[in-house]
Every structure is written in C-alpha cells, then in structure tokens.
Amino acid sequence: MILVDSSGWIEYFTDGPLADEFAPYLENYAEVVTPTIVIFEVYRVIRRQRSEEEAIAAVAQMQKTSVVDLDQFLALSAAEVSITHGLAMADAVVYATAQASSIPMVTTDAHFEGLRNARVLSRRS
User: Fold this and answer.
1) Residue 121 in 3-state DSSP?
2) How many angstroms separate the CA atoms of 52 and 4, rounded?
3) Which domains does the chain have, with CATH numbers?
4) What pairing do the DSSP bridges indicate for beta strands 118-120 and 105-107?
5) Angle between helix 52-62 and 6-13 (nearest 10)
6) Tens-of-pLDDT digits for all 125 residues of the chain?
7) Helix (H, G, I), strand (E, B) or coil at 18
8) 56 closest CA partner among 37, 35, 36, 42
9) Exposure letters 59-94 (e unless 16+ CB within 10 A, then b)
C-alpha cells in the first residue's frame, strides 16, 4: 500500500515530466490510498488546466483506490502534524492519513522532505 499525493496524480494524469516515475505506484489501484482532499486538489487543478471532462475522468480513476474520508480522528491527527511539522492543512491531512494507515507516501512537494515514510521525487532534471 502507498499514498500518492496530489502532485503525483497530477503528474500522472497530465503526462508531466515525472509521470513515468509515478506510474509504477499507480499500476495497481487496489494498493493506493487516497485521502478525499487529494481528490479535491486533483479535480481542481485538472478542471482549471484542462477540462471538466478530464477532471471527472481523473476522479473516476482515483475512486478505484482506497479512498479515505476526513473524520474526527484524522482531523485531530492532521492538526498535530501541522503544528509539529509546520504543514498547511491539506498537506497535514495527507501526511496524517499516510501515518494513520502506516503506509509510505510519495510526492513532489519538497516540504515533505525529511518526514518519516515520505518519498519526495525531484522535479529538477
């Protein structure tokens, strides 16, 4: 199991420079955990940059993963993560979800550097 952050899904769906690096993590949707906030972020970006149809298609693919809703437990865990690591709300929710699920996460967002079980793929060539 692995959690792919919004940045990874966006790379994958938009055929970004790191799409091929994220592809192996997304080959088996049954092994991917997706917080609902990631669905929000991916839909918003693809809807703005591409089209509503592509955004809806992306969400349909993401719904094949293990989608995790934000509940009270995760909200409080995310608040603690935000305080401890200085992460913004959405990033704290993503990281808290990975930690609560005891799984690693993969992202391109540098502010996850150094956090336990967070793999950051570099956008630099």
Assistant:
1) coil
2) 22
3) 2-120 (3.40.50.1010)
4) parallel
5) 120
6) 999 999 999 999 999 999 999 999 999 999 999 999 999 999 999 999 999 999 999 999 999 999 999 999 999 999 999 999 999 999 999 999 999 999 999 999 999 999 999 999 987 64
7) coil
8) 42
9) beebeebeebeeeeebeebbeebbeeeebeebbbbb
